[in-house]
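Hi Q.,

Before the meeting this afternoon, I wanted you to have the (2S)-2-hydroxybutanedioic acid prediction in hand. No need to reply - just skim if you have a minute. The sequence and ligand are here:
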Amino acid sequence: MSKTITITGAAGQIGYQLAFRIASGQLLGNSVKVNLNLLEITPALDALKGVAMELEDCAFPTLGKVSATDDAAAAFGDSNFAFLVGAKPRGPGMERSDLLIENAQIFSAQGKAINNNADKDIKVLVVGNPANTNALIASANAPDINPRSFSAMMRLDHNRAIAQLANKTNTHNSEIRKVAIWGNHSTTQYPDINHALVGSEKASDLVDETWVREDFIPRVQKRGAEIIQARGLSSAASAASAAIDHMRDWELGSSENDWVSMAIPSDGSYGISEGIIFSYPIVCQNGDFSIIQDLDLDNFSLDSIKHSEKELLEEREAIKHLL
Ligand code: NAD
Ligand code: LMR
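Predicted structure with the ligand bound:
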């Protein structure tokens, strides 16, 4: 079996991690050959050719053909999975929403290219920021593709929340289950451990509320900025890792008795406006996803979720000419 996978911005920081991990079988396993379509802007084509040469030099048994191009129609041709990474990253002192107008055009053009060229059952993960609204733009420009094929990445936030809770409780990441990130991939996101488990114990019995509100939540919300401050560049290896986690679980199923966080088109669950790309606790099965329903949310949680919804509605308003 072989699958075609498109990576945009493939010569960039995240793309440079992602391409090799996917080529080595870390997305779809050892029995699937992957053909990689790498898309870049024209000035980055030389660097992209270098990436393609290095992929060749790895001689991965799971790698089929590699194409390096600046032509979006070719890059999305018959694509089964697309990682939309290519976009400008923020620098120190910027919010992700500062990138909205600058990056929006990229996602309307790529939405059209996906619509006209990709496999109709494609799965699309938007990583380029502001990821949720970029996913909305791409989807709106791909009217022949099911909107549920478009998602945005919250898995990095989800993984960050797991790591913070494991550190605090002196346990291992593998002991933590049912963490959720709600809302936007921005500082309004709501990292929620009210339903989380540490081994068989409730997380809320092991950590106090002051730590959750004053340390955990802001830490996860602002972790991207903390990385930029430390590295001088935005997160890349952890972002690529989360992108693979997101797409692998979507395609192959998420772990039993656990949740993941994915930003997907809201269907109105939990009173959130339909259509915006909102992160919910999710389970994946049979190549599809469903929202965990009927969770009890306290007033703090409801207010936090509404706050993030408001930001996404404002972002949608700012780019409505592209929808
Ligand atoms: P980077 O600057 O290293 O790489 C981006 C690449 O995209 C560049 O090589 C650039 O030439 C290319 N590019 C620009 N416009 C393009 C287009 N129209 N088509 C194809 N390629 C194009 O940036 P990076 O560190 O890899 O980050 C990429 C994006 O991912 C940024 O927007 C960043 O903020 C975002 N990001 C999101 C998350 C998340 O959790 N959602 C995490 C980390 C980074
Ligand atoms: C992150 O969360 O690390 C990325 O979205 C990059 C950023 O700008 O914070």
